[in-house]
């Protein structure tokens, strides 16, 4: 399955890119994160503390155990600080 | 009803005119403006957002507030980009029949906007640039609703 991944704020800075398209067999977000962390140190560092990472599937906030079926866009970012 | 995500500044009195236009049944108007607070050596604030998600998340917050308090109208503006000290960051304006709903709804919208709308602040100061950490109190505030 091909997924578009977006990164924002310090996730973007730590990984060094704002978006990428990847091919994955991961069935949940947790599995995808494991795959990404193995790619290289930048990913491993960015995802080292998941309590400070939020995730959205197709622009909706979800938890890391959510399934990845029929997803086209996934975004990783720190807790929001609007207002 | 309107949610605007923009780089440019806004004028509160113009926004309130739009909010009130044609709504003679509104007996209460509440507006809140968040500005760039000048503390320590802060020079500017940079606001990043997730364009595909920002509008839908704010509209969802707005719609929930409207149905919960039977509001007459709501306008939300949130800016992004580089903002200097004292500049306006965002605005929430609520019109309702009576004041209680308007105060509560504005408070509700602000609580959810702070922790659920995809915006991130970076502070630029004389000593460097750092991302603002989310305040755990903001997340706890959501339990009030």
Automatic annotation (TrEMBL), chain A:
Q: Name one GO biological process term.
A: Mo-molybdopterin cofactor biosynthetic process
Q: What does the UniProt keyword field contain?
A: Nucleotide-binding
The terms under GO molecular function for this entry are: nucleotide binding
Gene3D superfamilies (alphabetical): 3.10.20.30
Q: Where are the transmembrane segments?
A: none
A single cellular component GO annotation: molybdopterin adenylyltransferase complex
InterPro entries assigned to the protein according to its UniProt record, in alphabetical order: Beta-grasp_dom_sf (IPR012675), MOCS2A (IPR044672), Mopterin_synth/thiamin_S_b (IPR016155), ThiS/MoaD-like (IPR003749)
Alphabetized PANTHER family for the sequence: MOLYBDOPTERIN SYNTHASE SULFUR CARRIER SUBUNIT (PTHR33359:SF1)
Q: Which family does it belong to?
A: Belongs to the MoaD family.
This protein is called Molybdopterin synthase sulfur carrier subunit
Which organism is the protein's source? Answer: uncultured alpha proteobacterium EB080_L06A09
Instruction: Provide the organism lineage as a comma list.
Output: Bacteria, Pseudomonadati, Pseudomonadota, Alphaproteobacteria, environmental samples
């Amino acid at each position: 399955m091909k997924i578009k991944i977006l990164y924002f704020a310090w996730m973007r800075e730590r990984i060094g890119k704002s978006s990428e398209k990847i091919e994955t067999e991961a069935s949940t977000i947790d599995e995808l994160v494991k795959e990404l962390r193995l790619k290289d140190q930048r990913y491993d560092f960015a995802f080292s503390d998941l309590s400070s990472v939020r995730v959205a599937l197709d622009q909706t906030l979800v938890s890391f155990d959510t399934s990845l079926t029929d997803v086209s866009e996934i975004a990783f970012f720190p807790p929001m600080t609007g207002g | 009803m309107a949610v605007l995500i923009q780089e440019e500044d806004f004028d509160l009195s113009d926004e309130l005119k739009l909010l009130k236009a044609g709504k003679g049944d509104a007996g209460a108007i509440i507006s809140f403006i968040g500005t760039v607070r000048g503390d320590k050596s802060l020079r500017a604030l940079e606001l990043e957002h997730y364009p595909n998600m920002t509008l839908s998340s704010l509209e969802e917050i707005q719609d929930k507030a409207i149905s919960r308090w039977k509001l007459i109208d709501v306008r939300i503006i949130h800016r992004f980009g580089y903002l200097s000290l004292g500049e306006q960051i965002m605005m929430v304006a609520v019109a309702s029949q009576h004041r209680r709903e308007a105060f509560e709804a504005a408070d509700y919208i602000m609580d959810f906007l702070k922790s659920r709308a995809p915006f991130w602040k970076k502070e630029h100061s004389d000593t460097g640039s750092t991302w603002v950490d989310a305040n755990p109190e903001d997340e706890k505030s959501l339990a009030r609703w």
